[in-house]
Amino acid sequence: MGITEDLHELRDRGIAAVDATNDLVGLDAVRVEFLGKKGSLTTILRGLGGLSPEERPAVGKVSNEVRQALESAFQERHAELAAAAMAERIGAEAVDVTLPGRARPVGSRHLIEQISAQVVEIFLGLGYRIAEGPEVELDYYNFTALNQPPDHPARSLQDTFYVRDLSGERADIDGESDVLLRTHTSPVQVRVMESQKPPIYVLAPGKVYRRDVADPSHLPQFTQIEGLVVDEGITFGDLKGTLDHVCKAIFGPDRRTRFRPHFFPFTEPSAEVDVSCGICGGEGCRFCKGSGWLEILGCGMVDPNVFGYVGIDPERYSGFAFGMGVERIAALKYNIPDLRMLLEGDMRFLRQF
Ligand code: 2NL
Fold it and tell me: Which of 267, 326, 329 to mutate to test the pocket of ligand 1 (most atoms within 8 A of CB)?
């Protein structure tokens, strides 16, 4: 058999092999077999050296034709197989964009945060500014500057969480630390009075700590909002008008307030404020224990001794202050029987708000 016939036979075998492959890997193996450096075509062309110069052009022409025929067969089959592979991949990876998505559970602000935000908005509307301060406080700002001398009962270990200083850098008072967890947000306002001149209109919301065992009406950690006004000519009438407005804004315009005399070390005179019962409208019922009133905050005129600690002239300025427990307000507003429910994280309870 002559070389031309060998070449034609190779071409036909190659094309048949290409047509018989069904994947790209197999096709590449066939390409190497027929067209590679050690492939069949190369092997035949090596034998061209033995031809006479007259025969060479014709055989060269045929071998080029065979190479081109094989190459175009490979290209055609490669395009077909690549397209088929792509189609299969598109089919397998297809996403049905018309399927409804999976709904994620949406959270919401905790009731205490909602009420804090509401009270903050009310006071921003009255022109107050928000003040913040450390939760780990110095004894001086939490007690001393608020007219609570070192022997005051509220300072006892029974009522206050003292922070022990393990580094030994800070001197302890009588073996007790002078660093504590603030028992109210008043120290924030002491710091404001120390660093700013009147007129002062501030609100201090934040977490406070007391060494209480949790029960339906006490929590060892709760949220307090205190407020302080210091200006010329501030009277108890300003205090009453402000807090009456705030109570109506929190509980509704039909509620009334009353001020009962009380005692706080840092205010004189002092009062507790009651709001009329929302269940019976003041008639007396189980919710208000028959009195028609619910206690919601404490307040008073800033004691001149407090002004003395922070360098404000009590002859020129007067002021009022107040404090409320947000958990207690939440309990009154939503008839929550036990403050501990606010900390338990039970979604069946929290979802209601
Ligand atoms: C309550 C009572 C109160 C204050 C807080 C205060 C702050 C300064 C000066 C004077 Cl810097 N007073 N705060 C006054 C009266 C009552 O809170 O029942 N809190 C839960």
Answer: 267
CA distance 327 to 218: 9
- Among the atoms of ligand 1, which is closest to the Cα of residue 306? 9
322 lines ligand 1 (CB under 6 A): yes
Q: What is the pLDDT of residues 58-102, one digit of tens each?
A: 888 888 888 999 899 999 999 998 998 899 999 899 888 899 989
Separation CA 188–CA 322 (nearest Å): 13
pLDDT surpassing 60 at residue 171: no
**Which two three-digit tokens encode residue 103?**
């709904």
pTM summary value = 0.73
- 177, with CB counted inside 10 A (0-12, 13-18, 19+), is middle
Could you tell me if the CB of 321 is within 6 A of ligand 1? yes
Contact 114, 353 (CB under 8 A): yes
- C-beta 319 within 6 A of ligand 1: no
Is residue 70 a contact partner of residue 14, using CB atoms and an 8 Å limit?
yes
Enter the tokens of residue 286: 């189980």
Per DSSP, the three-state class of 66 is helix
Q: Rounded to 5 degrees, what angle do the CA atoms 199, 201, 206 make?
A: 145
User: Is 41 in contact with 69 (CB distance < 8 Å)?
Assistant: no
Judge contact between 262 and 251, C-beta under 8 A: no
| Ligand 1 center from residue 249 Cα (angstroms) | 20
Determine the residue of 116, 137, 186 to mutate for testing ligand 1's pocket, defined as the one with the most ligand atoms within 8 A of the Cβ atom.
186
Q: Determine contact, residues 325/224, Cβ cutoff 8 Å.
A: yes
Tokens 């406070």 appear where?
A: 208
